[in-house]
Protein: Formate dehydrogenase subunit alpha
Amino acid sequence: MEKIATICVYCGCGCGLVLHVEDGRVVGASPSSAHPVSRGRLCVKGWLAADFVHHPDRLKTPLVRRGERMARVSWDEALSLSAKRLREIREESGPDSLAILTSAKGTNEENYLLAKLARAALGTNNVDHVARLCHAPSVAGLGIALGSGAMTNPIRSLLSSDAILVTGSNTTEQHPLVAATILEAQAQGATLIVADPRRTQMAELADIHLAPRLGTDVAWTNGMLNLIIGRGLIDEDFINERTEGFSALKELALRYTPAAVERITGIPPADLEKAAAAFGEAPRAAVVYAMGTTQHSSGTDNVLALANLVLATGNVGRDGTGIYPLRGHQNVQGACDMGALPIFYSGYQKVEDPAARRKMEAAWGTDLPATPGLTAVEMMEAAEEGRIRGMIISGENPMISYPDRGQVIRALRSLDFLAVADIFPTETTALADVVLPVASFAEKDGTFTSTERRIQRVRRAVTPPGEARPEVEVAAELLRRFSVTADYASPEEVMAEISSVTPSYGGVSSRRLGISGLSWPCPSPDHPGTEILHQGSFPIGRARFYAVEQQHLPEDLDYPLFLTTGRSLFHFHTGTMTRRTHLLDRERPKATVDINPADAAALGVRSGTMVVVESATGSLDIEARLTAEVPMGTVYIPFHFAEAPANQLTTRTLDPTSKIPGLKRTPVRIRRAEG
Ligand SMILES: Nc1nc2c(c(=O)[nH]1)N[C@H]1C(S)=C(S)[C@@H](COP(=O)(O)OP(=O)(O)OC[C@H]3O[C@@H](n4cnc5c(=O)[nH]c(N)nc54)[C@H](O)[C@@H]3O)O[C@H]1N2
Ligand SMILES: Nc1nc2c(c(=O)[nH]1)N[C@H]1C(S)=C(S)[C@@H](COP(=O)(O)OP(=O)(O)OC[C@H]3O[C@@H](n4cnc5c(=O)[nH]c(N)nc54)[C@H](O)[C@@H]3O)O[C@H]1N2
Ligand code: SF4
Ligand SMILES: [Mo]
Structure:
């Protein structure tokens, strides 16, 4: 048996995985004991990460739509047709009538080439990916507050924390190896504060559980600051030496008294006081957050409020401190780093900056567009209105994962041309004109960048099924069809180009990565990489406080309940891989809506009753599950299940700064289904 060291394909923890190969097939996976994050451990999805690789449903040949049917064609035919249709649309409607969604499941090299395809070949900055639905508020908020949108410290650094505030993160289920580290820190004496409207396992294990109403995070965060200022627990030296804007924030925080916070959030003053004391008194405190923070129409404000908290207490730039936006997909950090975003080239170099643009034009040998592109949800709106006519979607399943599914269907059906690259048939490939079968993580070389900015090697263990090909090759072929030079002999050569144009990856080469990888910024070949950011200074000089107010949340009498959506440990998003992994699907085979027993009694609903959930955008038939994990007035649906897609109910209400939709709070009503 051969053993190939690689990286888990699921979440941003970035665990080291060993694939076991026998007779050209992956037969199992086990943890890597030498790996700095996993240290010999994996969660259940990691142990089962090899299961879908040889599934019979894998896409094996390129397909082209012929009326209602999909016909098998050669790669040459599929790619030539794609290039021809995209070129025709561009001639008729201009480059900005085209768009690319790249994949957080893809490698850095694939994301870089797809972003290059959008800019250098199609001529548009319309390139984005699911980070828009995920940590766009972190990229925007931490970007303006600290100068970098990434996690400040490595996961391991939490072991040195004296207090850890975890908010909007179902950590034991969604980032199991981060949760294991947090619980290890707690066992050593750190105080664990968890803010989540639901009583998750993390909340159950917390020393202090704050259960705010959905969407009221700015209020309680400002409230903690109010108490921390009142008790003299701020770090005045840090504020004076390294930040600006504190006086305006202080004035604002004065108004968020415990009583005012209780009215907005429902959090009892005594709990808020305990949390503020624990966080404020800790010599080293850290904030860990995820989608409960970002997926709101106030997502950027929520992030800024948390940044205020760590800055005011001087908890940045040291081991045991910091702010941890937990990145979701195993390479969503990398997809952002590679410039699969409408306003940035790789390394967050702005497309609007003439110097950056000239540099990229010289590197890519062509003129580049200067106007920022559309974000993911804006692309869907433009498609419905006919402003976007041709799209490439690589490794995303927006039919299940994007908000307001009715609108997504209308948008994708309105396109004149859609090409989709995936490893499995999905609800989105079903609408494609061309389907491109690509290699999975086990069948290609390249790199992923984990949530702790750790750039790690992904290694080919087996050959792709049928005619499926690594997407690096597919993207390079498309670039050449648009006369852009793309003579890459291997993903390593793509990484060489990435490091030549991307300062933070400047010292990265596949050869250097080894088992532990390298954390960016790593500007030069002799640089060891950077585990803790902002140690002496911030990239923007001084960090900035932003005085953010709690948004007013109007009541809607027609929709008296609030839906929040999320995930389960056993499934990954739209389930394309986990629902094809028997042992995972068996654990969580069907969709349910969680309802508090008191709400259920008022509705005349029991566990197992079929109900109809209705929002302003759609309705859904789904089975009820009664649980006190959700508070009264709140219901919860995991969005994994195509049979009952939660996004039928969500809306496109966007955060004005980051353009993330408010997926965590949708007004709904519920009734028993007829019959
Ligand atoms: N098993 C598994 N792991 C995954 C994924 C997966 O699909 N399956 N997906 C990956 C990806 S891409 C991501 S982004 C991460 C997501 O990881 P998480 O963000 O941890 O997961 P979610 O279930 O989206 O939501 C997190 C929590 O936010 C809480 N919440 C909702 N509204 C609010 C609010 O207003 N305030 C606060 N404080 N909390 C709120 C919810 O109750 C929920 O417990 O997981 C990654 N890991
Ligand atoms: N209601 C609601 N909606 C949400 C969220 C929520 O919390 N609530 N969360 C949002 C968030 S944070 C995220 S990140 C998104 C996730 O949304 P998506 O990223 O669209 O969901 P996935 O199911 O992970 O889709 C990944 C696709 O990539 C394919 N794939 C796997 N490996 C490869 C590969 O190597 N190459 C290629 N090309 N494809 C591959 C998979 O088969 C799958 O079809 O969902 C968002 N939508
Ligand atoms: S914690 Fe995340 S990266 Fe680690 S094994 Fe589980 S899914 Fe994979
Ligand atoms: Mo995500």
Summary: The domain at 2-47 is CATH 2.20.25.90 (N-terminal domain of TfIIb).
